C-alpha cells in the first residue's frame, strides 16, 4: 500500500500506481490564465501524480546557502497541486488560512508532498485539505493541516455547470433588490457597521467579493460574527458561506436567541417570512423542531388509541394501551412534550386541547408540511430528520414491544446511521474544537509530559479533533483512549495509533471506584468526557471517582448536551440506556441531561473550580472545564 496512515510511504510504489502525471508547470500555467501567477521564490519544479485515493507532488527547488528551512515554494505547492484535478476549470485557488503546521526538521530541497483526496473538503468556494511532506526516502518531515484555499474565478468565466467537479457558481443576480429576511437584516447591519457603509448598500445575495470586500476584510469580519453570536467561529466561515443570505441561513438555526427579536419584529410584516396558518418564522429554531416532532408523535400515539376516549387519568396510561413497562418514563416525557407544544393539558388528566385536535388532522394545517419542508432544507436539521421520522413512524410497534428500536438506530449492528445523524454538524464540530484547544493549551503550557484520559471515547468523534491539536504542540506524554467496548478500542488503535507512540488503550468503568487507578500507575493530568457522563446511574459517585483519578490542578473537560430536545427524546430516548439514571434530582426532568448551571453546581460541590468557555444563553450543548482542587 503506497499511502499508509503512518509517517512514511513507498515513493516508488506511488510513482508506479500513478494513473496520470502532470508537470507542475502545466498547473502553474493554468493558474496564470486564471490570474493567479506564481514566480520566483514562490514556484517549485516537479510533477503531480494522480494515484488511487491520493495526489502526490514530486517537488524540487534549487539548493543554495540562503534557502529557507521551510521553502515557501514547497509549501505553496500543496495549494497548487489540487489544480491538476480541475481540467478546464475557469479559476484557481488562493490559500487563505492554515489551521496548523508542524515539522520534525527543515524541508529538503527535494521532497514529496502527499494529499489524501478522500479528505479534501469543499464548502461554498472553499477547498480545505492537508498536505504531508516527505523526504526522498518517504520519511515524514512536515505537515500542513487544514490548508484552506478560496476559488478565484477567471474574469468573465461563465457559471459552472452542475456536472463540474468541485463547486457551484451562483447564478447572475437580477437587477431588482431582494426581499430581506429578519436574520439577514441583523447580519447586514453589523457587517455594514464594520465596513462603514449603509446596510442598504449591501445586497444580501451577492458574494462578498462582488460587494468589494477583499480577502483580508473577509477574514476580519469573522470576529464581527463571533461578537454577534458570542462564540468562536472557524476563520474560514465567510469563505464557506459566501453571501449574507447564505451566512444567515447557516447561523440562524444555530443561534436562535440572537435572531429571535428580529424575527418577532418582522413576523407577519415581511413577505414570505411566516407560514399562513402556523406563524413560524423563516429562521428555524429548536422550538420549531420540537413542535414538529410533538405533532408527529401525537399522530402516532392516536394510532395506539390514546386520546380517543376523551379525558382519562394519567395514572395507568401505559398499561391501558399496551405500552411495555420500560417505556413508562418515555410516555410521561411524551405527555410533557405534547403539553409544551400546546396540544395536551398539563396535569393528572390526559386530554387534548383544541390545538391538539387540529394538529392531529394531517390535512387541517398546511403549515405543518411547510415546516417539515424547511427542516428538510436546512443542513443541520436534515441530517437528523429521516432518522427521527422513522422512529416516530415505528412508535406503535416500538412502545408495545413488537419491534426493537435498535433495528432502526443501529441497522445490522452498525453505528453509521447514528454517526451520520448526530456528528459532523457545525455545533458538534465547534464544541470538539473547543475541547481540543483547551487540552492542547494545557499541554503546551505545562512544561512536562502530560497524561490524558478520555472516558467513553466510543467511535472517536472527539478524539479525531483532539489528537491533531495535541500533535501540533508536541503531543502529550500519554493519551489513554478508553471505552467499555473492546471493539471500539481495536478500531481506535487502527485509526489513530500509527505515528502516535503516546497512545494507550484500555477499559475504564467510571462508575466503579478505583477503576482509573487500576488502569494507570499514577493520576491523570487531564480527563476528557464527551457526551458520556450523562449516561451513568449516579453522577455524584462518578465525579467522586473522576476527582480521585485527577492530580490536584488537573482538568476535567466535559462536552455535554445541556438542553432537552424532542429529537433526542424520539431517538436516544427510545434506548434503554437513556433512562439508566437514578439521581433524578440532578437531571433535567424527562432526560438524563443536566443544564449548564446544574453541571456547574455539581462540579463545585465536588471541589472543582469551573469555567464555561463556550457558554451561550439557550445553547444546545456546552464545553465545561473543571479544575481539580489543590495545588497544581
From TrEMBL:
Give positions of region: Disordered: 152-178
Quote the Gene3D superfamilies the UniProt record gives: ACP-like, Polyketide synthase dehydratase, Vaccinia Virus protein VP39
Keyword Plastid attached: no
List, alphabetically, the PROSITE patterns matched. Answer: CARRIER (PS50075)
Q: Where is the Carrier domain?
A: 181-255
What GO molecular-function term can you cite, just one?
methyltransferase activity
Q: Which UniProt keywords apply?
A: Methyltransferase, Phosphopantetheine, Phosphoprotein, Transferase, Ubiquinone
Question: Pfam families from the xrefs?
Answer: Methyltransf_12 (PF08242), PP-binding (PF00550), PS-DH (PF14765)
User: Which BP terms in the Gene Ontology apply to this protein?
Assistant: methylation
Q: Which InterPro entries match?
A: ACP-like_sf, Methyltransf_12, PKS_dehydratase_sf, PKS_DH_C, PKS_PP-bd, Polyketide_Synthase, PP-bd_ACP, SAM-dependent_MTases_sf
Name it: Methylase involved in ubiquinone/menaquinone biosynthesis
Origin organism is Saccharomonospora xinjiangensis XJ-54
Give the organism's phylogenetic lineage: Bacteria, Bacillati, Actinomycetota, Actinomycetes, Pseudonocardiales
